[in-house]
Structure formats: C-alpha cells, structure tokens
Design brief:
218 residues, mainly alpha, Four Helix Bundle (Hemerythrin (Met), subunit A), two-stranded antiparallel sheet, 7 helices, 2 strands, membrane, oxidoreductase, transmembrane helix, ERV/ALR_sulphydryl_oxid_sf
C-alpha cells in the first residue's frame, strides 16, 4: 500500500491536506492493509475520523454536516448496546449498501444530457442516469452541458473562425513540409559537394593512405 500512500500524498496540491492524509495513513496503519476487507474498513475508519475532526469547523456545510457513517437510522444493527460501532456489522452493511443499488419506482432516477458530436456537428441527444446514491449534484451536470453547447454555438458564429475557408488553406500544411524537405536536401547536397571537392584536391593522398597505410593525411 506504500505506492498508494505516496501517490495520494504527492497528488494533493493542498499542503495541509497532504499532511493530514499522511497523519491519517499512519494513525490507521495503512501499510498493514493486506486484504479487501482491510481496505474497506480502512476507508470507513478514515472517513469517520476526518468527519469527526472537521465537524463544527468553519468549512462544515450545514446542508451536509460532517457526521459518522452510517447513522443509526440507516443501519441500526451497526451499533451495539453501548452505542459503539460493531465492525462486523459495518462490513456487512458496506458491502450491501454499495453493491445493491436500487431505484425508486415512483421518483424518476436523476439523469443528465449526453450530446454526441461528429466533425463538430450534433448527431444525437440522449440521457444518462446517475447512481441515485451519488446524485447530490445531478442538476449541475445538465447545466454544464447547456453552457458548453452555448459556448460552442458562439464560437461557430464567430467570423474569426472563417479563416479555415480561405482558398488554398488545405495546401498550407503540405507546402510547409515541402519547404522543410527542400532545405534539408539542399544542405545534404552542399555537404556532398564539399566532400567531393575535398576528395578531388587530395585524392592521391587518399589512395596512398588507403593502399599503403602510410602517414599521409587528407
């Protein structure tokens, strides 16, 4: 688990957040996690530990208060007679809660728009459904799609983009490549001519050196 630890620690751009994660990792012994069961329980413990630390802080959202999960109204059997968590029941609850996703037959599941584009043109409009347990900001996704579509229309209507239709635009790329190759071929030809002239001037020395292995130099 050390690669996971180091990745999250270095990924977080917030220095304080990275330090807090490092403290939580050491406090809850991340490096001792060895099984899937351990990983589930480790995440649960860290989640509740962070919520307990941030509860009542200035950053606490009153609409979504930091509280221990799961609450007794959701999982009564997760608490023992003393009001403490029963970790065996917690593990069973976590598997059931995040594996058995059910939708309300009365209320429509949250969804967001999905536009399909090809070559800059709208081809189809569809919808995607979010997991109802993770649909807190479902309405914002649809608004984001609308903003992106509006910006795309504004860009398409901008006259500055008409430069693509200038006659001969399609040949600009090939013309640039031709100039590049021409420059390189000219340089290669110059080097070959220079080497040939050098050879013509010293060819007698060259052949003597090649055949007789004497000390003549070009």
């Amino acid at each position: 688990m050390e690669p996971f630890h180091q990745f999250i620690f270095r990924y977080l751009s917030c220095g304080e957040c990275a330090k807090n994660f490092d403290k939580e990792a050491k406090k809850h012994k991340l490096l001792e996690v060895a099984t899937a069961h351990d990983m589930v329980m480790w995440f649960w413990r860290v989640h509740n530990s962070v919520n307990a630390r941030l509860s009542g802080a200035r950053s606490d959202d009153p609409k979504f208060p930091k509280r221990q999960f799961p609450p007794s109204v959701v999982c009564g059997q997760c608490y023992d007679s003393n009001g403490s968590f029963d970790e065996k029941e917690i593990f069973k609850f976590m598997l059931a809660y995040y594996s058995d996703i059910r939708q309300d037959s009365v209320q429509a599941p949250p969804e967001y728009k999905m536009n399909v584009y090809k070559d800059g043109k709208l081809q189809a409009v569809g919808s995607r459904h979010l997991n109802p347990k993770f649909a807190v900001h479902a309405d914002k996704v649809g608004k984001l799609e609308e903003v992106e579509e509006r910006l795309r229309k504004e860009l398409d209507a901008n006259p500055q983009r008409e430069w693509k239709d200038i006659e001969g635009y399609d040949n600009l790329a090939s013309t640039g490549r031709s100039h590049f190759y021409l420059v390189w071929l000219t340089m290669i030809a110059f080097v070959i001519i220079l080497a040939y002239c050098k050879y013509r001037r010293n060819r007698s020395k060259f052949w003597k050196t090649f055949y007789y292995h004497n000390d003549f130099k070009l």
